[in-house]
Amino acid sequence: MKGRDPFRVIREALARTLVFYYPFAGRLREGPAGKLSVDCTGEGVLFIEADADVTLEQFGEDLQPPFPCFEQLLFDVPGSGGIIGSPLLLIQVTRLKCGGFVFALRLNHTMCDATGLVQFMTAVTEMAHGACAPSIPPVWQRELLNARNPPRITCIHNEFEFSTEEAAAKVNTSSFVIALPHEEMAHRSFFFGTAEISAVRKMVPLHQQGCSAFDLLAACLWRCRTIALRLNSSNEVHLVVNVSSRSKLNPSLPTGYYGNVFAFTTVRSTAGELCGNPLGYTVGLVKRAKANVSEEYLRSLADLMVIRGRPGFPVARSYVVSDVRYAGFGEVDFGWGKPGYGGVAGAIPSEASFFMQMRNNVRGEEGIVVPVCLPTSAMERFSKELESLLNLKDTSNVQQYKSTIKSSL
């Protein structure tokens, strides 16, 4: 693709891809009982062309969140951020003066999960390389995950249950998260290489040392975060785990299905129990919660949505973690080679972190990078708690960016 304009190449490829993925060019509508559907209006997606007077090298040797000038790399078009009646995709291609470019995308998550998004992006790359059609034909068929008739809730879904304290308060539950509603937020990414993961693994009993790195780090970060927020010991805290569920279904979904196929499962504990027990206690909670996600759990969840009309999702003292290491963002190649970084742009302030695979060029090793966003004072405590836990001497793998966004929590 040398000598070609990435904006024009990707725009043309995107237009051709949307012929096959035409629902993305429509708009979301809300029907009776909150039922969502896509109106295939053909109104299209938002696509932005930009130029930046910087080079890729100026973003740092290790490309990871938070990214400087992120608001300029993905411009928030006024009036485009709604769920209902708004564009389902916003894409920006920013050319850099070194010849590279930044591809940034905002998605209405009701349309697809990380696996589905990578399938769509891969189709765009194939079109950019001259293909006439995607190698994997897209499959809509959302009815495959419809509720049963009659619907029946057969599993416990704590992720949609408010605690007694929250229900009694009858206020915006987000006020429970942090008692500093106007404090400046701090964004940092934490890299976990072989040494860090090994250090965490040594903190759990022998029978748990074979568990996944995700389970270990999710438990570790949840514990450090709870300590950093200085909650009362009696406060209930939640870890909400996003579990990819495609492998749970029998028969499996057809190849090419790009809808959401994941479930949230929730771990609950009091702050006192979480911080007062060994790390193995928390790891056990995480493993048991993930084990609950089965095909019956997914069917029960779909039925719950019908019976309870898309219930609200409690955010009070909740921390959401999602593992997107194997989604394939780092493999997306529009014709200029694989990206220096492919993944989520950062953490959701005070609410969610994403686990991503990354190569740390400074240390010369592969590992897991996890972006975290907390109020500044809590972030300082979080970083110190994690450093103390891991007994790290070198904190060069931690990057910080203080935004001017005020917390609304």
UniProtKB/TrEMBL annotation:
Keyword terms, alphabetized: Transferase
A biological process term (GO) from this entry: fruit ripening, climacteric
Domain of life, per lineage: Eukaryota
Entry's transmembrane regions: none
GO molecular function: transferase activity
Pfam families, A to Z: Transferase
PANTHER family listed in its UniProt record: ACYL TRANSFERASE 4, OS05G0315700 PROTEIN
Family: Belongs to the plant acyltransferase family.
Protein name as it appears in the record: Benzyl alcohol O-benzoyltransferase
Species: Ficus carica (Common fig)
